[in-house]
Amino acid sequence: MAWFRRRPRITDEIYGRLMTSFGRVVDRDPMVKQPAAALAERVAAEFTELVEALDAGMYRGATLYHLRLLAGAWIMAREGAVPRATAEVFEEALAWRFEPVRKGSRVLAQRVTALANGEFERDTRM
Per its UniProt entry, which superkingdom is the organism in (predicted)? Predict the structure, then answer.
């Protein structure tokens, strides 16, 4: 249990390091890259208007790319390849990057996290 938990202080330098390191690692391993891409595409399909607004504010395809790296971070954290805290910091960094471009865009990072961690109700009907 964390008693004095605080949000990480994100800077452009920290964000750049996260993007560079996870970009290399996620793209190199197909067992991480493909599931991460599927998760990112699902979230992008759920929030198409928000994704389009973020892409217009940054560059085309930026949102899907960032979401894919976040999903890859969570996949690697669940496998034990990186600490869970690293994925948590990446989630916060992604929200930090998206929120100034479009208010309410934090929901994208939260949804990717929920899907990657299996924190959603499954439809088990046949």
Answer: Bacteria
Q: How far apart are CA 94 and CA 44, in angstroms?
A: 15
Cut 0.90: pTM above it: no
How many structural domains compose the chain? 1
Residue 125: inside a domain = no
What range does the domain containing 20 cover?
12-117
Q: Where are the alpha helices (DSSP H) in 1-126?
A: 12-28, 30-46, 48-57, 62-79, 84-98, 106-116
Answer for the pair 88, 81: CB distance below 8 angstroms, yes or no: no
Chunked into runs of 10 residues, the chain (126 residues) has average pLDDT values of 59 81 84 93 95 93 93 92 88 89 92 89 66
Give the separation between CA 76 and CA 4, rounded to whole angstroms: 26
> Is 92 part of a structural domain of the chain?
yes
Asked if 69 and 23 touch (Cβ cutoff 8 Å), the reply is yes
Domain-located, residue 4: no
- The answer to whether position 122 is within a domain reads no
